[in-house]
Amino acid sequence: MHPRHEGVQPGDAPDRLAERIKTWGEALGFQQLGIADTRLERAEARLLQWLDDGWHGSMDYMARHGTKRSRPEALIPGTLTVISARMDYLPEHLAEVRDALADPAQAFVSRYAIGRDYHKVLRRRLQRLAERIASHIGPFGYRVFVDSAPVMEKPLAEKAGLGWIGKHTNLINPRAGSWFFLGEIYTDLPLPIDRPIADHCGRCHACLDVCPTQAIVAPYRLDARRCISYLTIEHKGSIPEELRTQIGNRIYGCDDCQLVCPWNRFARLTGEDDFQARQGLDTATLIDLFSWSEATFLQRTEGSAIRRLGHARWLRNLAVALGNAPDSETASTALRSQRAHPSPLVHEHVDWALRRQLGPGT
Q1: Which residues pair with 285 in a beta bridge?
Q2: Is 51 annotated as a binding-site member?
Q3: What is the C-alpha separation between 223 and 181, in angstroms, rounded?
Q4: Residues of the chain scoring pLDDT < 50
């Protein structure tokens, strides 16, 4: 943390400072800010059970830091409160997202990733917010996080009153749905705590029903090993064959549970240019993206969250989607063009896709 603050300005009580922080945050483009304490005992118990169940798959980093993830003051000594912020990212109307997903020739990229890397956008804004606070009260202890450290961002946002964690394990806001990013500022400021919002999922189970791979095994319980977002982004190895057909044309992430959530009728389109589609990723075809060389992939994903996937996993995902596409000579020809790829990972998934396109013995 930075040097500790020497207190707020005379006459600027903690509740007044909290109001100022929220106003400054909204001026920086955040749709809402809230403040939470650091007590996450319930979330910690759920995390430990999830890890014990092995549902984190190969995401070893989820267990690497022990309880620092669920105890902010252990990660950053001196932390008293957490400022949690959300920023809308939905770049187009939901009908357009559904149309893209329904077209088997189109490459579906989760809408959070079709624009600029959100980590950079939110981190820069949160840093500016922290500097604005410091300019008002003097130096204080803080650290900015955007999905970049062992931080339980959804439980913290829930405690800060930004929404409730739904049955699909995403945060839902009653006036904005769930199409938003989260970021945090850990602080040593004694700020007043916001009140959480009650869970309003009720009897709805639409997200459980729609999940293509049944990764939401029970309300509020997600087995990441079956989740398409995990399989196409986090997972570095071979995608289990029994799950490949359910992936459809999803090549990077999955938005199905958000698309069916009734609360997303309140979702608002983003006003951020950075979250608009780049490189035509909202309309690109599987064939077009499969033709990208590694150099092209690196060039066209510069500044994108997709780049960390790497070219081999990019081709892996596209090969699975082409295997799920309607039989066509164009798809078969494209797959054959990568049959001699040096990566065993690519080779395996291309061969599987060709068997799907041309039949056994191909």
Answers
A1: 106
A2: no
A3: 22
A4: 2-4, 6-8, 10-11
